[in-house]
From TrEMBL:
Principal subcellular localization: membrane
Organism lineage string: Eukaryota, Viridiplantae, Streptophyta, Embryophyta, Tracheophyta
GO CC entries: plasma membrane; plasmodesma
Keyword line: Membrane, Transmembrane, Transmembrane helix
Stored InterPro entries: LEA_2 (IPR004864), NDR1-like (IPR044839)
Keyword match Transferase: no
Entry's localization field: Membrane
Protein name: Late embryogenesis abundant protein LEA-2 subgroup domain-containing protein
Domain Late embryogenesis abundant protein LEA-2 subgroup, first and last residues per copy: 80-183
Length: 210
């Protein structure tokens, strides 16, 4: 006669408890491993302390800045920026950089997209952009402001770069960080414009926030 073994609820409870212990051990082991990896990355990050990139304006030329129709602006600006990575052990990926010009708090060109690029340790790159505005609506006071600047012989233009960057340490690459760059171009503004371009070649340092 065959025997049938029937386990009591007590035995089943003991087996369930052993499975729970196994899952808990696996969970704690995975958590400890994950925490160790994060801690290592944080320690490396704190040791390296990546510095934000440096931007400077090398050259800016205004070829067109005039009103057509009712407060509609046409503009044409060429600029060159110098971008530098000051870090010795941290590389930088630049993503989705948009450049545009502003005057008296008004955007006077559409955004021009710069191609994404990687900047190695302590590397420098020259960035050029052609900024165009066709029929952009501006405030009714725009013509008066330009005329007043032409009388005083000086025009102040703000050149902006917005986008994101990622830090690279060894094979590790960080998430995206917001990048904002503001450059001030002070240009001599005489009565000869627009027969000749307005130019700024001061090599001024730009403010950068990450």
């Amino acid at each position: 006669m065959s025997q049938v073994h029937i386990e009591s609820p007590k035995h089943c409870a003991k087996k369930g408890l052993n499975v729970d212990k196994l899952y808990k051990k696996l969970f704690f082991a995975f958590s400890a491993f994950f925490t160790s990896i994060l801690s290592l990355i944080l320690i490396i990050w704190l040791i390296l302390r990546p510095a934000k990139p440096e931007f400077s304006l090398k050259e800016a030329d205004i070829y067109q800045l005039n009103l057509s129709g009712l407060n509609l602006l046409n503009s044409s600006i060429q600029l060159t920026l110098l971008s530098k990575n000051p870090n010795e052990k941290v590389g930088i990926y630049y993503d989705e950089l948009q450049v545009y010009a502003a005057y008296k708090g008004q955007q006077i060109t559409v955004g021009s997209t710069l191609p994404p690029f990687y900047q190695g340790h302590q590397d420098s790159n020259l960035l050029t952009a052609s900024l165009i505005g066709t029929g952009l609506p501006v405030a009714s006071s725009f013509g008066y402001e330009v005329g007043r600047d032409q009388t005083t012989g000086k025009l102040v233009l703000i050149l902006k770069v917005n986008g994101s960057l990622r830090w690279k340490v060894g094979t590790w690459v960080s998430g995206r960080y917001r990048l904002n760059v503001n450059c001030v171009a002070v240009m001599g503004f005489g009565p000869s414009f627009p027969t000749g371009p307005l130019s700024s070649r001061q090599g001024t340092q730009c403010s950068t926030t990450v």
